Amino acid sequence: MTYIKPKFRHPDLPKNAVGFTKTDYEGVISTLCAGCGHDSISGSIVQACYEMSIEPHRVAKLSGIGCSSKTPNYFLNNSHGFNSVHGRMPSVATGANMANRDLIYLGVSGDGDTASIGMGQFVHAIRRNLNMLYIVMNNGCYGLTKGQDSATADAGSVSKSGSVNPFEGIDLVGMALELGATFVARSFSGDKTQLVPLIKAALSHNGFALIDVLSPCVTFNNNVGSTKSYDYVRDHIEALAEIGYVPEKEEITVSYDSGSSVDVELHDGSSVQLHKLAEGWDPRDRQAAMSRLQQAKAEGEILTGLVYVDPDSKDLHEIIKSDKRPLNSLKEEDLCPGAGVLAMINDEFR
Ligand SMILES: Cc1ncc(C[n+]2csc(CCOP(=O)(O)OP(=O)(O)O)c2C)c(N)n1
Ligand code: SF4
Ligand SMILES: [Mg+2]
Question: How many domains, in total, are found in the chain?
């Protein structure tokens, strides 16, 4: 049975700062099609979490339904997991995060799962600035149900069967910016050099972090005429900057010309270094991000990298001033402050 992963590990495998090897961050063997972009994204998640020395039990991975939503089974086997219903991952993530803010929330979704059935949930998670990393594995189609166009398929994109999509595609990055998202990025499954530091930065961000990852479906949407195929994406990609992630305790040693570089300090003390910035670009300027995105669209480019970040972002817990303790540790007297307090509240309305 080739789908069973051998448990044997070389005793000299390198370990990270918390004593885990990279294989401790893997999952079961993938059953996705060979060459599917989603598997490369899983690999980047494994690498990012290993390199960040995250203890696997501190992560909660959540997903909806789709080939993309199956991937949490293929990474972080030792973490908490919840595979929810189609498009409902954000509400499960919201509930879990509200109940216990101490975990790291990693949501995985597809373009169908997010941009159609889950759209209502997705926009409210952004609006509330829920502290989570939300990865969309975007292949422009419903891979699991045999490749129908999704809402992110570009107008004019040609399907494998030759039909032309007549509808405008929804740009999740543009929409997230408009909704006030505090960390917005786009990447490509085939570009680990960019994707791994983006995942690390997103996990260090305090609030909602979206990474829209173009992730070709080799079985149903990799044909000539598709704007989500490997060839098309590689030919049209335009990176905003080179990106590096510097962990909290590490000193920044490389210095670049000011004007072409920006260092953004994140909530946990780590920082993102951006080099060779696109002209006139500042990732902390929402308006500049929105107009650069529009410009790219008009020029037929696919803009990748960290599009926008708000380093002073306040997450949902800070906004609503919720209790820092996990709900299951609250006592009856915390949850029900008694008749005296109730009388005081009622008096305020008299
Ligand atoms: C309520 C509900 N409606 C429809 C479906 C059928 N369905 C399963 S996956 C899917 C879309 C998957 O597309 P996407 O989220 O882009 O994931 P991909 O397979 O492309 O990674 C649909 C429509 C379902 N499972 N549940
Ligand atoms: S059908 Fe497409 S999205 Fe699904 S596993 Fe195969 S290549 Fe990936
Ligand atoms: Mg899809």
Answer: 1
Asked, for residue 338, whether it belongs to a domain, the answer is no
Closest C-alpha to 95, from 57, 125, 134, 59: 125
Q: Which has the higher per-residue pLDDT, 307 or 253? A: 307
Quick check: CB of 36 below 6 Å from ligand 2? yes
Closest protein CA for atom 6 of ligand 2: 33
End-to-end CA distance of the chain: give it in Å, rounded: 72
C-alpha 311/C-alpha 305 separation (Å) is 16
Q: Does residue 184 line the site of ligand 1, with CB under 6 A?
A: no
Closest residue by Cα to atom 2, ligand 2, is 217
195 Cβ closer than 6 Å to some ligand 1 atom: no
Q: Is the CB of 41 under 6 A from ligand 1?
A: no
Full domain range(s) for residue 188: 22-319
Helices (H) and strands (E) in the chain, counts: 12, 13
pLDDT value, residue 253: 58
pTM of the model: 0.94
Residue 162, pLDDT score: 94
Is 1 contained in some domain? no
Which atom from ligand 1 is nearest to the alpha carbon of 138?
16
Closest CA to 224 of 184, 169, 164: 164
Could you list which residues have their CB under 5 Å from ion ligand 3?
A: 110-112, 139
In a domain, 213, yes or no: yes
Q: What pLDDT score was predicted for residue 249?
A: 66
Going by alpha carbons, the residue nearest to atom 2 of ligand 1 is 86
DSSP result, 146-196: T-EE-TTSPTTPBPTTSPBP-SPPP-HHHHHHHTT-SEEEEEETT-HHHHH
For residue 240, being part of any structural domain is answered with yes
Q: Specify the residue with its C-alpha closest to ligand 2, atom 8.
A: 36
Nearest-angstrom CA–CA distance, 100 and 285: 32
pLDDT in tens, 187-227: 999 999 999 999 999 999 999 999 999 999 999 999 999 99
